[in-house]
What does this fold into?
Amino acid sequence: MAHYTQIIDLDNLDVIDRHSYSIEEASVPATEPVLNERQAPGMTPSMSFREQPMIDSLDQMDMAYPAMHGPDHLATEAPYGVEKKPLLSVEQPAALIKYSPDFRADSLFVDALHQLQQGAWPQAMLMLNVLKAKYPDAQELELLAQDVTLKTELESQWSMKVKGRQLGFAPLQVLARLGPIVLIAVLVIGGFFSYSYVQRARGAALERSALQEQAQTALQSGAYDEAINLFNQFLVLVPGDATALKGIVEAHKQIDLQKEYKLAVDAMKAGNTALALQYFADIEAKAAGYLDVKALMDKIKGTADVAQLFTKAEAAYQGKQWLEAIQQYEGLRQVSGTYQADIVTSHLVDAYLHAGQQIVAQTPSDTSDPKTAKEYFSKVLKLKTTEPTAQTESDLVDSYLKGINSIEQNNAEEAIQIFQTVYQARPQYVGGYVAEQLYQTYLKLGREAQQAGNLWYALTSFSAASELKVRDTSEATRLLNEVTLALTPTPTTIPTDVPAAPVAPEPTATPIPPKLSDFNGWIIFKSDREGGLGVMRPDGSDPQVAPADAAAQIAAIYEKESWSPDHNSHLYVTKSEDGTNGANIFKLRADLPENWQRVFTYTDQSGDEYDPVWSPDNKLIAYVANGTGNDEIWVMNSDGTGQKQLTVNTWEWDKHPTWSPDGQKIVFYSNRTGKRQLWSMNPDGSAQTLLSNGQFEEWDPIWIK
It folds into this structure.
């Protein structure tokens, strides 16, 4: 009798309907009956697979299915329940089992398809495993089994993410027919989108190329404003493009050269050859060969009467018009470096020295900058290295500038040390501004010590401030008395009967000069009017000279604006030590312990941010920033968020905001009218209104609260 070996994995076989298929226990006939598509082996051609005899017991099952006994093992002659092995090789007589040559006619395959259509992957897989064992040469069954395995894994991975009706199974033949159609559709759609993308990319590239070419053409033709505009448009499309950035820099350079060239030509036409030569020499240094600059310089030098130039320079020198003398002597040296060289050098040194001394004798302003004085003193030392006075002046102005930098860095102790040196050498240096700065710095340190409970340190600071030679030390005296009283123990007093004092006659009333406190709710500001300070009503009416005591209080009023209304936080401005960043605004929490984080960065924009002031309700901070091109008024929330620009100018600037007592208005000063004037607006930037438009320049307003 012939034998064959069969390997079958029948895990969970008990879930299969054991009456869904039949086995014929007979010798293989010489001829096979022809079966229809859904007819199982052992059935007559007229019988449905559902009409075959039923097997009702496990014993019958053992006899009818000798190769498939139990859910987890296979047996031939062993009784039911022997040791189970998942996979066994079983040799059986070939005559016991007769398989259909076509698995599609097997009723188990029909049921497997039914399970696949219902999405019952485990049951379908079990049936397919049986079919694979019965029809080992049927590759289609292996493909179906692989597909069921994939669907089972996908359903396991995504069942918790994707909800909805499961799709039915499409037979392999349908998939094979649909595959080419789907592939063609994907290729067509993908090609369409690829073509569209390429066309858009090509259009954008052409646009960028054309824009760049237009910008370069405008730059080369001298249309510099147009070139800047086109380069900026190109940077919107290609941010950070090096060529565009270089083009913008070059255009601005050419615009500046154009302006300076016009000034030189105008000076030349007006007969001011010295000034014209200065301008032309500066242009030649920046852009050698620019237009006809060299030719014009040669023309001036060839036609200029050096004797006449010398006479003009000497006249300015004798009249102590130091800036005019510097201009004439420098122009003469451009024409001829040898004409009266000793006298010119000596008088030029003297003019530099006196011009610098004039500057450091005045309170710093836009027209009187100690940095310019520093340049003059350096020129003196370059021409005459042994000039002792120039060296002394240079050292003093260096110290002053370092002290100012220390204040900007919020380093009060260092500022005091530097300013003390300058003050001891010259108490009225820069118009007494050093003494005033020293005074305010002492008061600042004293107040901080007083708030921290360090009364002895506060006493020392207030005492030092009261001894300085400033116009008004009343605030320092008041604070000194306040701290002294707090440090003095209160004596125990014994009440005694005191006779009533005689009533003195009332003195004759005398006029009382107004005080700054009388102008509460007004606006105080700096001015070039008499006294240097003025006051006006909030609507700009009734402008007048500020009371006499305002000068001594103005610095304290400015300082108060940088403190929060609850006196817990202080805003200050400083720059990075390496100079890589501009001025930024920081907040110091004075109410926190020193070992906690107390300093917080509030702004870090490009450019500078300064002049921060708190709103009365402690919710907003107004300040000045120039990161967008000009000095403009901005606001932010009290925690540094929500930064918003309020004013926008073409070239003008707006500075020094101050809040009204009710927080409904912001006053600032601007040069929109051609000179510094006061303006007001709402906290959102609307309703910008000119308050002052008189003959005087007015700046640095503060609302008196």
In short: Residues 32 and 100 are 9 Å apart (CA to CA). The chain is about 45% helix and 10% strand. Residues 172-221 form the longest helix (50 residues). The radius of gyration is 49 Å.
